[in-house]
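Collaborator request, handled under Task 6.
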Amino acid sequence: MFLMKPEAIRFFEEMSNYELVDTYYTARSALFNDIMMYMTVLFAFLSVSYLVAEKLSNFQSVALTGLYTVFISYVAFGVIDSQTGVATVVWVLTGDDIFFSLYITGGILVSAWILSVVLFIQARKGGDT
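C-alpha coordinates returned to the collaborator:
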Protein backbone atom coordinates (compact mmCIF):
# COMPACT_ATOMS: atom_id res chain seq x y z
CA MET A 1 0.00 0.00 0.00
CA PHE A 2 1.33 3.46 -0.82
CA LEU A 3 0.51 7.10 -0.03
CA MET A 4 -0.30 6.33 3.60
CA LYS A 5 1.98 7.04 6.53
CA PRO A 6 2.12 4.35 9.23
CA GLU A 7 0.47 6.63 11.81
CA ALA A 8 -2.47 7.21 9.43
CA ILE A 9 -2.88 3.47 8.98
CA ARG A 10 -2.87 2.96 12.76
CA PHE A 11 -5.50 5.71 13.03
CA PHE A 12 -7.81 3.82 10.68
CA GLU A 13 -7.10 0.45 12.28
CA GLU A 14 -8.14 1.79 15.71
CA MET A 15 -11.59 2.79 14.43
CA SER A 16 -14.66 0.70 15.08
CA ASN A 17 -16.46 -0.87 12.11
CA TYR A 18 -19.18 1.78 12.38
CA GLU A 19 -16.60 4.58 12.21
CA LEU A 20 -14.87 2.93 9.25
CA VAL A 21 -18.12 2.49 7.33
CA ASP A 22 -19.09 6.09 8.10
CA THR A 23 -15.66 7.28 6.95
CA TYR A 24 -16.02 5.19 3.78
CA TYR A 25 -19.37 6.79 2.88
CA THR A 26 -18.05 10.26 3.72
CA ALA A 27 -14.96 9.76 1.54
CA ARG A 28 -17.08 8.26 -1.26
CA SER A 29 -19.42 11.24 -1.14
CA ALA A 30 -16.45 13.60 -1.37
CA LEU A 31 -15.12 11.56 -4.30
CA PHE A 32 -18.42 11.82 -6.18
CA ASN A 33 -18.59 15.57 -5.49
CA ASP A 34 -15.03 16.01 -6.79
CA ILE A 35 -15.81 13.99 -9.92
CA MET A 36 -18.91 16.10 -10.58
CA MET A 37 -16.86 19.28 -10.16
CA TYR A 38 -14.28 17.92 -12.62
CA MET A 39 -17.00 17.07 -15.14
CA THR A 40 -18.62 20.50 -14.71
CA VAL A 41 -15.36 22.35 -15.38
CA LEU A 42 -14.50 20.03 -18.27
CA PHE A 43 -17.83 20.50 -20.04
CA ALA A 44 -17.81 24.25 -19.41
CA PHE A 45 -14.42 24.42 -21.13
CA LEU A 46 -15.66 22.21 -23.97
CA SER A 47 -18.68 24.48 -24.41
CA VAL A 48 -16.48 27.57 -24.54
CA SER A 49 -14.20 25.76 -26.99
CA TYR A 50 -17.04 24.92 -29.31
CA LEU A 51 -18.90 28.25 -29.08
CA VAL A 52 -16.31 31.02 -28.87
CA ALA A 53 -12.74 29.69 -29.22
CA GLU A 54 -12.42 30.95 -32.78
CA LYS A 55 -13.30 34.50 -31.68
CA LEU A 56 -10.77 34.76 -28.83
CA SER A 57 -7.47 36.59 -29.16
CA ASN A 58 -4.20 34.72 -28.58
CA PHE A 59 -3.83 36.27 -25.12
CA GLN A 60 -7.39 35.33 -24.16
CA SER A 61 -6.86 31.78 -25.42
CA VAL A 62 -3.64 31.32 -23.45
CA ALA A 63 -5.16 32.90 -20.33
CA LEU A 64 -8.30 30.78 -20.54
CA THR A 65 -6.39 27.56 -21.15
CA GLY A 66 -3.95 28.38 -18.35
CA LEU A 67 -6.69 29.11 -15.83
CA TYR A 68 -8.55 26.00 -16.93
CA THR A 69 -5.41 23.88 -16.51
CA VAL A 70 -4.68 25.23 -13.04
CA PHE A 71 -8.25 24.80 -11.82
CA ILE A 72 -8.79 21.37 -13.38
CA SER A 73 -5.48 20.20 -11.86
CA TYR A 74 -6.63 21.35 -8.43
CA VAL A 75 -9.92 19.46 -8.86
CA ALA A 76 -8.11 16.37 -10.20
CA PHE A 77 -5.88 16.29 -7.12
CA GLY A 78 -9.05 16.46 -5.01
CA VAL A 79 -10.44 13.46 -6.89
CA ILE A 80 -7.23 11.48 -6.30
CA ASP A 81 -7.15 12.50 -2.63
CA SER A 82 -10.76 11.46 -2.08
CA GLN A 83 -10.18 8.20 -3.91
CA THR A 84 -7.14 7.52 -1.70
CA GLY A 85 -9.38 7.91 1.35
CA VAL A 86 -11.91 5.47 -0.07
CA ALA A 87 -9.18 2.97 -1.02
CA THR A 88 -7.61 3.21 2.44
CA VAL A 89 -10.87 2.50 4.24
CA VAL A 90 -11.62 -0.41 1.89
CA TRP A 91 -8.14 -1.78 2.58
CA VAL A 92 -8.60 -1.54 6.35
CA LEU A 93 -12.14 -2.99 6.26
CA THR A 94 -11.61 -5.85 3.82
CA GLY A 95 -7.89 -6.20 3.20
CA ASP A 96 -8.47 -5.63 -0.54
CA ASP A 97 -5.86 -3.45 -2.17
CA ILE A 98 -7.68 -1.21 -4.68
CA PHE A 99 -4.97 1.43 -4.92
CA PHE A 100 -4.31 0.43 -8.57
CA SER A 101 -7.52 2.31 -9.37
CA LEU A 102 -5.70 5.56 -8.59
CA TYR A 103 -3.58 5.02 -11.71
CA ILE A 104 -6.65 4.34 -13.83
CA THR A 105 -8.45 7.43 -12.52
CA GLY A 106 -5.35 9.59 -13.00
CA GLY A 107 -5.00 8.34 -16.57
CA ILE A 108 -8.64 9.10 -17.34
CA LEU A 109 -8.43 12.61 -15.86
CA VAL A 110 -5.23 13.47 -17.71
CA SER A 111 -6.60 12.03 -20.96
CA ALA A 112 -9.77 14.12 -20.63
CA TRP A 113 -7.67 17.25 -20.03
CA ILE A 114 -5.44 16.56 -23.05
CA LEU A 115 -8.40 15.89 -25.33
CA SER A 116 -10.19 19.05 -24.16
CA VAL A 117 -7.14 21.21 -24.89
CA VAL A 118 -6.75 19.56 -28.31
CA LEU A 119 -10.40 20.31 -29.05
CA PHE A 120 -9.85 23.93 -28.01
CA ILE A 121 -6.85 24.21 -30.34
CA GLN A 122 -8.82 22.66 -33.20
CA ALA A 123 -11.72 25.05 -32.57
CA ARG A 124 -9.28 28.00 -32.56
CA LYS A 125 -8.04 26.96 -35.98
CA GLY A 126 -11.59 26.73 -37.21
CA GLY A 127 -11.16 23.01 -37.72
CA ASP A 128 -13.82 20.35 -37.60
CA THR A 129 -14.91 19.98 -33.96
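The cover message to the collaborator said: "The longest helix spans residues 58-94. The helical segments are 6-13, 17-52, 58-94, 100-125. Please let us know whether this matches your experimental observations."
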